[in-house]
Amino acid sequence: xxxxxNRVDELVLRLRxxxxxxxxxxxxxxxxxxxxxxxxxxMIKLRVDGLPLEHVLGWAEFSGRRxxxxxxxxxxxxxxxxxxxxxxxxGGRTVLDLCCGSGAVGAAVAAALGADLYSTELDSVAVxxxxxxxxxxxxxxxxxxxxxxxxxxxxxxxxxxxxxDEIALLPHEARDFEPSLALDGGADGLDLVRRxxxxxxxxxxxxxxxxxxxxxxxxPLVAEIARGYGLTASISTTVVIVTR
Length: 244
What we know:
By secondary structure, the protein is of the alpha/beta class. Helix content is 41%, strand content 20%. The strands form 2 sheets. It has a 7-stranded mixed β-sheet with strand order 5-4-3-6-7-9-8, with helices on both faces. The protein has a two-stranded antiparallel sheet with strand order 1-2. Helix 5 runs parallel beside helix 6.
């Protein structure tokens, strides 16, 4: 059934009434996704009910490419493209993406560099999605999931860094539809970051670099923690850059 101008207007109004700030853009994406009116209506209802647009579509755009996502999996954020740019500027032949979620961050870095990519993820739902986006995903807890003896020129990390008490303050799309495992970083938000930095030197090649995204408030503390492990650390807004 062809989509008329009135149908488009109706869709925009429904999305706007549901609180979608970019209703026109979302309507265009939904309309481009299917020509089937029943399928379109199903997707609209999911979005109006609050499901993140990326979960409705089944993909998210990140660093100029589309990556598969699914309900229960963290959606890569545009702000993290800064981490990708900083990692690419550093260069390297081997990349590790810790807490990879959908796998988009490591995939973007490795694609830009033509590098060999390893990704790790604890959550089995995210692992299944990541394997749609990258070829080598190890399921398990951080470095424990990796084969022994490999070292990396670059490690990229978007670990959960929201303090537990602040989870309730997140937008409902994150709070209600993304797993707490991908959001909750403990009392100060840095539980996993501490664990990652404690072992980083063992997995970084000489002069290798680890880049992790946190909040601007947390970044100075993360840099201090890294220095406590004998690493060099600098800050670029929300990204802490750590080297051996």
